[in-house]
Amino acid sequence: MELHREEQPPIEQPPSHSARQKLSGLVLRLTDREGVQPTAIPALSFLRATAVSEPLPALYEPSLYVIAQGAKIVTLGEESYMYNTDSYLVASVRLPIMGQIIEASPERPYLCVKLRFTADQIIEIMQDLPPQPAGSKAPLERGLVVSRTSPGLLDAVTRLVSLLDTPEDIPFLAPLVIREILYRVLQDEHGQLIRQLAVSSGNAESVSKAIALINQEYAKPLRIDELAKAINLSPSALHHQFKQVTAMSPLQYQKKIRLQEARRLLIAESLEAADASYQVGYESPSQFSREYARMFGLPPISDIKRLKDTVGVE
Predict the structure, then answer these.
(1) Which of 69, 158, 269, 281 has the smallest CB count inside 10 Å?
(2) Cβ distance 84 to 103 under 8 Å?
(3) What is the reported pLDDT for 6?
């Protein structure tokens, strides 16, 4: 399994220890329980955990993830990405991943800041940036990347979190700080990742449309010829370009979406395994159980029992 670690920029120095402590202190004070916590800034949320975790499935939407304390490994397909307080992760499209918190304790909990963004926000910023050189077509990149956190980005994220202490300032200042954060990500060495999947241009737009279509109709049979026709690509081009962005084929992507949604239904709605399998598009409960076990390590009933026992799911 390939492990992608954060890459060093050539010149800029990493943020100081005191700058990291300032952000972690803010998030620690503003979180009062385990798990995901929304905030008064709609696009901003926190995740807090006091123990390391087993690999758990999640759907990453277009977002920036900055760890204030601890470390995490995210697996996409066969590739793993580790990030910590020196780095940040960006997902540019909706991706089914496995996430594992690898540094956390009651004394030093894992603390993560998540900022959702939209293509419209990226396009608005790009309209004010110098145009890309004509004819410069970069190859499609993964829809997930880890990069070194710069002092400027950490400072902007800290200022956004600080606004939660002055709610009256949020409507006026939060949009400006969010714009600055996204600008800094766009200016980073991996900014092309966000640019290519936010702008309506060629292959990147086609892959984004394919991802959206699969998510909208994941419970229906996936016919590659029809999907390719809908996004104006040949089936072979669809397969190649989709895999460039998501590290998996369209069928593998759909399967992960189906199985993760089934797991959510089993936990959150206490459905029977057969009912969950039909709801996400499986015609055979036995096939569903086999594929579920291959992905999560145990058949549905055993897996959900383990999760409730070890993670404390109600």
Answers:
(1) 269
(2) yes
(3) 46
Tokens of 141: 């990149």
Q: In whole angstroms, what is the distance from residue 283 CA to residue 271 CA?
A: 16
pLDDT < 50: residue spans in the chain: 6-11, 135, 312-314
